[in-house]
Amino acid sequence: MLQTFVKNLSVDELKNFLKFVIGTSEVSMSTLPHRISVPCYSGDSIFASTCLLELNRPKHFPNYSSFDSAMRTVIEGSSFKTA
What we know:
- The protein has 83 residues and is of the alpha+beta class.
- It is 39% helix and 12% strand.
- It has a single domain, classed as Hect, E3 ligase catalytic fold, CATH 3.30.2410.
- The chain is built from 3 helices and 3 strands; from the N terminus they run ααβββα.
- The termini are far apart.
């Protein structure tokens, strides 16, 4: 499901996805040698650990449409602000 989701993202949506998962919308030399880990767990929410390059997601979605909707909600709602 995640591969299909990422393949279907526009450039701007992909930037939002990267910002949600790794904390920035641009890939640098420091992130290139690393892979994003995608552990699945028995919870209900999608969350990311930007320090670990980890996208945590629930084990089950009833269908792709539900997964797509949940992913779009988290990546469109993510915002990182500095004080």
